[in-house]
Amino acid sequence: MDIARLLAIAIGAILVNNFVLHRFLGLCPFLGVSKQLDAAIGMGFAVIFVMTMASVVTFGIYHFILAPFGIEYLRTIAFILVIATLVQFVEMLIEKTSPSLYSALGIYLPLITTNCAVLGVAVLNIDKSYTFVETLIHGFSAGIGFTVALLLMAGIRERVELADVPESLKGVPVAFIVAGLMSIAFLGFSGLVVE
Amino acid sequence: MAIWDEFSKGIVKENPVFRLVLGLCPVLAVTTSLKNGLGMGMAATFVLVGSNLIVSIIRKGIPARIRIPCYITVIASFVTVVDLVMAGYLPELHKNLGLFIPLIVVNCIILGRAEAFAGKNNPLRSLLDGLGMGAGFTFALVITSSIREIIGTGKIWGLVLLGTRYNPVLFAVLSPGAFVTLGLLIALFNKLEARGEA
């Protein structure tokens, strides 16, 4: 077990190859749920949870079911169905065990199925042939990276809403330009970790 | 003419990217060159047309409660076809688009059209709707990727366009350039829309 490599994967997924600002994954929730800070926090935690779970489960599916039977090409179909089921299952589990958390996350959970960051992290884990522990760390830190970007964006957007923006730039366009500026800042992290 | 409208609405009036702001991830990620943008557009169009057609044909046999998983399975099957065909015949494009081919499955445009249109309309209309939306998506990818490739490298389709004296603005092909270009394009479409209504 190489701790330095795990650290490199974690920092890489959070800062250098940030899922939203560098890999362009999960933009729909990034733009949709970043209007208010409270909602962004709920969405962020739900995504961290689901991405970690999805990484672990898809790792098992791929290495214990698809690979032994030589049906790796069914990966896309298998993964998306597993993720959809997982999200549904997590939703039911949270509803039973922790009603307060459920009401906080509530509406964001079903939305996560179509968050491409979740399927993206599952496919990336396989493409990079990570081991189980690396997969776990990568899934978790990718979720953290998404949440960091989402929270920063929500904080900025709450202020942009009050600013005097030209009519045709209001809403999505100005959010994109803000994301572009954040992306420039995150470019500064490149070179921090050599994968 | 009603049938023609199903096709043409997707290109400008209800353009999935510029007007409905759906399916943004690939529009930002693969638009570093016109070749990649066009390839992505064609792949997504194929999946969109195929899944719209199949969903529309089987729409009466699917119980309403489990329709979303059924739609996703149909879409994922078409994506797998595209993935394998592209890996076999266009390996270079397949390598460039990489992760974003399997991710066509979770493109909101495709599931959105299956749910909002193909699940309620006959196969012919759904086919045209898929073609129109696909054309609109490809149009958005082609515009975004042309702008980024010309500004970022001074070339188009790999051919030198602006000559050797042009100093490429690398910013446009890096990730921030993607956000800013698309933001400005959406603003432009908003402006055109506002002018059209006034």
What is the strand and helix layout of this fold?
The complex is a heterodimer of chains A (195) and B (198).
Chain A (H helix, E strand, L loop, with lengths): L2 H14 L10 H6 L4 H30 L8 H23 L1 H7 L2 H4 L4 H12 L4 H29 L11 H16 L8
Helix pairs in contact in A: 1-8, 3-4, 3-7, 3-8, 4-5, 4-7, 7-8, 8-9
Chain B lengths: L1 H7 L15 H6 L4 H25 L8 H23 L1 H7 L10 H11 L4 H31 L1 E2 L2 E2 L14 H23 L1
Antiparallel strand pairs in B: 1-2
Short description:
The complex is a heterodimer of chains A (195) and B (198). Chain A is mainly alpha-helical and 195 residues long.
Top keywords for this entry?
heterodimer; A: 195 residues; mainly alpha; 9 helices; globular; B: 198 residues; two-stranded antiparallel ribbon; 8 helices; 67% helix
Descriptive account of the structure:
Chain A is an all-alpha fold and 195 residues long. Helix content of chain A is 72%, strand content 0%. Chain A has nine helices and no strands. In chain A, α3 packs parallel to α7 and α8 crosses α9. Chain A is globular and about 60 Å long. With 198 residues, chain B is mainly alpha-helical. The relative contact order of chain B is 0.19. In chain B, α3 (34-58) runs antiparallel to α4 (67-89), α3 packs antiparallel against α7 and α4 crosses α5. Chain B has helices at 2-8, 24-29, 34-58, 67-89, 91-97, 108-118, 123-153, 175-197, and strands at 155-156, 159-160. Chain B has one domain (3-197). The two termini of chain B are 25 Å apart. The A-B interface holds A 21-28, 31, 73-77, 79-81, 84, 113-116, 119-120, 123-124, 127, 166-170, 172-177, 179-181, 183-184, 187 and B 21-22, 24-26, 28-29, 68-69, 72-73, 76-77, 79-80, 83-84, 98-99, 102-103, 105-108, 111, 174-180, 182-184, 186-188, 190-191, 194.
